């Protein structure tokens, strides 16, 4: 889709795959792909390469699910970053996986950790950090992660910063699973409310988010461009098939 790989796993299958990643002990990068990121990657070869080299790329947004259907290779369902995190938290509490939460404004990761522990007794969150670190503080964070080796590292620096950060540091950290989770920590911390089920079902979660955070409207302007790019790709595919 627009040159980006999208993996056709259900949420249940994605959690099972990540469980295998953790069991392997080897580092893995998970990308939660939405329309805005996919459109940016169309004009950012380095980001596109990071996405396509990732070990799992989930269809995070309704726009991506729509695009795969239009292009003739539909994914079974949307696998949003927030749903993936919540499903993994259940598994982590049961299996003893260690988590680290990195990103958001000061206080968000800590509050998200507290609320996750309330929902999942026994969940082992070994640390948190906000996403506004100095160079020295970031070096200390990297050292802490190398020494304590969480099984799951949730990185909420916003896209594409979180994708670049994971790609740059994953190998040295050796974390079995690092996931770029965008604004998921804000939702988990209760700073942002998630859209009602009916809006999620209609693919309007992005609109609900904009109503809560009007400053995000500039980012939404990428959606019409994304739609045009997908329809252009679909026309080219149909033309190619006719020529064959």
UniProtKB/TrEMBL annotation:
<comment type="similarity">
    <text>Belongs to the glycosyltransferase 26 family. TagA/TarA subfamily.</text>
</comment>
<keyword id="KW-0808">Transferase</keyword>
<comment type="function">
    <text>Catalyzes the conversion of GlcNAc-PP-undecaprenol into ManNAc-GlcNAc-PP-undecaprenol, the first committed lipid intermediate in the de novo synthesis of teichoic acid.</text>
</comment>
<dbReference type="Pfam" id="PF03808">
    <property type="entry name" value="Glyco_tran_WecG"/>
</dbReference>
<keyword id="KW-0328">Glycosyltransferase</keyword>
<keyword id="KW-0961">Cell wall biogenesis/degradation</keyword>
<dbReference type="GO" id="GO:0071555">
    <property type="term" value="P:cell wall organization"/>
</dbReference>
<comment type="pathway">
    <text>Cell wall biogenesis; teichoic acid biosynthesis.</text>
</comment>
<keyword id="KW-0777">Teichoic acid biosynthesis</keyword>
<dbReference type="GO" id="GO:0047244">
    <property type="term" value="F:N-acetylglucosaminyldiphosphoundecaprenol N-acetyl-beta-D-mannosaminyltransferase activity"/>
</dbReference>
<dbReference type="InterPro" id="IPR004629">
    <property type="entry name" value="WecG_TagA_CpsF"/>
</dbReference>
<dbReference type="InterPro" id="IPR034714">
    <property type="entry name" value="TagA_TarA"/>
</dbReference>
<dbReference type="GO" id="GO:0019350">
    <property type="term" value="P:teichoic acid biosynthetic process"/>
</dbReference>
<protein>
    <recommendedName>
        <fullName>N-acetylglucosaminyldiphosphoundecaprenol N-acetyl-beta-D-mannosaminyltransferase</fullName>
        <ecNumber>2.4.1.187</ecNumber>
    </recommendedName>
</protein>
């Amino acid at each position: 889709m627009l040159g980006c790989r999208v993996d056709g796993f259900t949420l249940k299958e994605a959690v099972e795959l990540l469980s295998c990643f953790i069991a392997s002990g080897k580092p893995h990068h998970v990308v939660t792909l939405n329309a805005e990121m996919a459109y940016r990657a169309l004009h950012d070869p380095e980001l596109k390469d990071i996405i396509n080299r990732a070990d799992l790329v989930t269809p995070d947004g309704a726009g991506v699910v729509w695009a795969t259907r239009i292009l003739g290779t539909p994914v079974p369902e949307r696998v949003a970053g927030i749903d993936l995190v919540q499903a993994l938290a259940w598994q982590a509490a049961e299996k003893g996986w260690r988590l680290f939460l990195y990103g958001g404004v000061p206080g968000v990761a800590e509050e998200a950790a507290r609320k996750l522990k309330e929902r999942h007794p026994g969940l082992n969150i070994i640390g948190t950090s906000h996403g506004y670190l100095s160079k020295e503080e970031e070096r200390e964070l990297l050292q802490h992660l190398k020494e304590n080796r969480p099984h799951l590292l949730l990185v909420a620096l916003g896209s594409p910063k979180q994708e670049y950060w994971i790609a740059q540091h994953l190998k040295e950290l050796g974390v079995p699973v690092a996931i770029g989770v965008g604004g998921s920590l804000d939702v988990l911390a209760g700073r942002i409310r998630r859209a009602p089920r009916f809006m999620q079902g209609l693919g309007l979660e992005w609109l609900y988010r904009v109503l809560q955070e009007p400053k995000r409207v500039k980012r939404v302007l990428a959606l019409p461009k994304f739609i045009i790019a997908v329809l252009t790709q679909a026309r080219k595919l149909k033309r190619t098939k006719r020529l064959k």
